Amino acid sequence: MIKIDYDQVVHLLEERQFTELAAFLKEQHPADVAELINELPQEFHLELFTLLDPEMASNVLSEIHDEFRQEILDHTNSERLVNIIDEMETDEAVDMLSELTDDVTQDVLSALDDEDRTNYTQLLSYPEESAGGLMQTEIIAVYQKLTRNEVIEDIRQNYEEVENIHRVYVIDDHHRLVGILDIGHLLLAPDSAIVAEMMDTSLISAQVDMDQEKVVNLFRKYDMYVLPVVDEHNRLLGRITVDDIIDVMDEEATEDAYRLVGLNEEDRVFTRPINSVKKRLPWLTLNLLTAILISSVVGIFEETIARLSILAVLMPIVAGLGGNSGTQTLTVITRGIALGELTLHNTWKAVTKEITVGFINGVIIGTLVFLLAFLLKFDPRLGFILGVAMVCNMFIAGLVGSLIPVILKSLKIDPALASSVIITMLTDIGGYACFLGLATLLIM
Q: What is the pLDDT of residues 372-408, one digit of tens each?
């Protein structure tokens, strides 16, 4: 296989040598083609994509940057979209359908046969961030009475439709999941063995409405690479594979990282500037309001600061370290919530631990700043005030940094969404109030 050369592809596009380029692309790995589309000038995206056959296009689409993929889908006719969907696994096809406009989605669905249309309509009804939204319906399901050879023949007949067959699922006459048959076990079993004798009945499955974060935790906890999905009656609906879970983990990590700093996860490197402004401005406005509130607290001690200007120099130390300490606590607690480490029974233990850590760090840092302030200004009162304020603020940081995400989670609000701005506000207010309040009492 000849490696993709960016300059060569651009040259072929500019010279309109599409036949040669199409033959060249056909020999490439879909991930490399997607990377090439992401790097090309935007005016070439659709032109290159139209050169891909439906099978290659189906594999390339999921790897293209969101903004570019949406542009391509918007300019691809329904007939080609149907051909691409025919080459996709159901979970990927549903993801693509969900990105189309309602009218285009209906046009595509109407062009499918009755069975596929019913299947995709049902899959589209599941929440996007649920097990049903992640699963694919291509599975191998057999009855308990079948023999080993009959199961192998069933796999042969369905191999092209069901890719990456790791396990065979065993169902009863009501399509309820009763067991799992590992492919390795199946191959080593005697010809006369029946499924009921070979299957493993210790089942781990996901309910179709289970949140995707809980699905990720199941994969992580039990070291799984494929997970069956069932309905409330334990009827087998589909499966989730580990490649989908890796994508979810990337999405969740991105979402949490973005929300901690007030960004929308749809705001990416190549998002148009006006769209990025729309996504970021509301959060910055909220930060402005909290900053005004913090400033109003400082304003209460305006006379104190005016009479002892060194306080203005030292104030950022208190606020900065308190904010950093609160962010550290928030990160640990938010991660614990995301991974399912925090439960109803151990939450208070985690909160107590973080408060203790904040207090101890405050004592140590407070002692250091006391010594520094004393050595620099030869004023033990100033050093004492700064040290005590540091202890108070880092205690506050441990308290609010652990409690705020837990409270938000209990209110069904994503802890990463609003925790950072609340914690920063509270640590700044607490730090300034302690520092300037003590200065007013002990020095003025």
A: 877 776 577 888 888 899 999 999 999 999 999 888 8
User: What value does the mean pLDDT of the chain take?
Assistant: 87
- Is the distance from CB of 186 to CB of 198 less than 8 angstroms? yes
Which of 70, 65, 36 shows the shortest CA–CA distance to 52?
A: 36
Alpha carbon 196 to its chain centroid, in Å, reads 39
Hey, where are the domains in the chain?
Answer: 6-128, 141-257, 273-442
pLDDT given at position 417: 66
CATH class of 6-128: mainly alpha
Which helix (H) or strand (E) is 167 found in, with range?
strand 167-171
* Lowest-pLDDT choice from 209-213, 322-326, 408-412, 418-422: 418-422
- Tell the CATH topology of 141-257: CBS-domain (3.10.580)
Sheet of strand 177-182, all strands in order from the earlier edge strand to the far edge = 141-143, 167-171, 177-182
In the predicted structure, residue 353 carries a pLDDT above the cut 90:
yes
| Contact (Cβ atoms closer than 8 angstroms) between residue 434 and residue 388 | yes
Is it the case that residue 272 has pLDDT exceeding 80?
Answer: no
The span from the CA of 390 to the CA of 413, in Å, is 31
Strand pairing report for 141-143 and 236-241? unpaired
pLDDT in tens, 113-138: 888 999 999 999 999 889 999 999 99
Q: How far apart are CA 366 and CA 317, in angstroms?
A: 11
Place of tokens 């179709």: 208
Q: Compute φ and ψ for 112, nearest 5 degrees.
A: -85, 160
> Given a cut of 90, is residue 290 above it in pLDDT?
no
**Distance from the Cα of residue 267 to its chain's centroid:** 14
- The neighbour count for residue 320, using CB atoms within 10 Å, is 14
Angle of helix 310-338 versus helix 415-442 axis, rounded to 10: 150
Please state, in angstroms and as integers, the Cα–Cα distance from residue 240 to each residue in 126, 129, 136, 139, 246, following that order: 14, 13, 6, 10, 11
Please state the CATH superfamily assignment of the domain spanning residues 273-442 in this structure: SLC41 divalent cation transporters, integral membrane domain (1.10.357.20)
Neighbour-count burial for 373-392, b at 16+ CB within 10 Å, e otherwise:
bbeeeeeeebbbbbbbbbbb
> pTM, whole model, 2 decimals?
0.70
